[in-house]
# Entry
Amino acid sequence: MQTKLATVFLAACISLSAHAYSGEELYGDCQAADDVYAGKTSADPYQSIRSARCMSYISGFADGYAVGDYLAEKVGVSLNAICLPRDQNLPYRMVRSVLSHLDHLPPKPASSTAMLVAAALAKTFPCADQLEPKK
# Structure
């Protein structure tokens, strides 16, 4: 019984997280974050929440990628997809990267938000050490 309950709970969590944050929402949130970085102030507290959501999502993604990269190296695998520089302006640069990437996509992209951020960061922050291309 507990196994069934755990399975149902896990399935619910996975299905909810798959559509919890759309690319359109990410874009709007990152535009708000870009405004914050540009020094544009807003009396609307919702804009602060939106900008924080963008910055938190992208930073969380980057942290998760770093953990995955670390663990992959422990088993002898090199991911080499994203190499973030140690830079004081990195949070801003990541927000701009995502906005630039989303600007070049059709409206309502079908990819998950995580894949959109991954593609943006991989294009903006490629690794110098590239793996051999797939054949």
